[in-house]
Specification:
This protein is α/β, with parallel strands linked by helices. It has twelve helices and 16 strands. It starts with a strand and ends in an 8-residue tail after the last strand.
Length: 358
Amino acid sequence: MNTFVELYNEENRDSAVMARAGEILKNGGLVAFPTETVYGLGGDALNPEASAKIYAAKGRPSDNPLIVHIADMEALKVLVSEVPEKARLLADCFWPGPLTMIMPKSEAVPYATTGGLDTVAVRMPSHPIAYELIRSSGIYIAAPSANTSGRPSPTTAQHVYEDLNGRIDMIIDSGKVDIGLESSIVDLTGDVPTILRPGYITKEMMEKVIGPVTIDRALLADREDPNLRPKAPGMKYKHYAPKGELIIVEGQRQAVADAVNELTEKNEAAGLKTAVIASEETLSLYRAACKVSIGSREHEESIAANLYDVLRQMDEMGAERIYSESFAGGSLGAAIMNRLLKAAGHHVLRLETQKDNV
């Protein structure tokens, strides 16, 4: 299969590109496109064969539900059998935007899209190109992240091409995305809404709108616990991982730097190519030949936006052993660390912690 890459952004709006993408989708094909979170791999959400193609292209486990992307609230009448009042309240505040809501599915949504579940995950993206694609194609688009399953999610069209060239029909290139972390997921089918995946829309933000919100207990564990299985099927799989071994180092800032420098010297003496991921503020503390700033702690949005790109840079460097600072704390800390812990397989080196942790 030839994968076509088409530039389409504010400066380059060729109507033929959107028309071609729409035809591919309506005919059961796959199109990767930008959202405000990451690039998505889109197919017709109501076509079981298209959903099967998405799973095959990604190498994604079939019990991992796909998120259905919509452009207006009218779509819920087709996709959902019941719209909880709390869903309407959240939609009023956060749609379009990086929030996915789980509700009871309608008969129109095939089990191939929902991973065999009686619920459907829905979100309304705010990215103008995503919105235009949904509108112009006239379909609801099922779209997980446009990467090979387990790899860091794509924040540029180049990332998509690296993973899926020859597996999908088309990539719409609109440059780097804004947020860089997948949407928050909240399950609204129980008595109390439950966050299944942390993201840009936080627990505190949701609670201001709908009252108490819980977090899936498996997400609260700071290490892998075989007795806790996350409610969101996709969260039980290793995600976002670079090819090298990733280790998160937690502790006092200077202690972390000292420990990482010592480990780096030992690894390099043993012939292991070693890299360090650190904040802009602390990068100079590390002596590794390969070290990358992930962003500033003063602007945690920069850390979120750069996370997946930095993990992919580790592969480009050929890093075999990677040490990363912890980025807990702040409004996005839970979302960032959720992804980083998954990428590291929950491999964390904890030093004696005092204040001034990293």
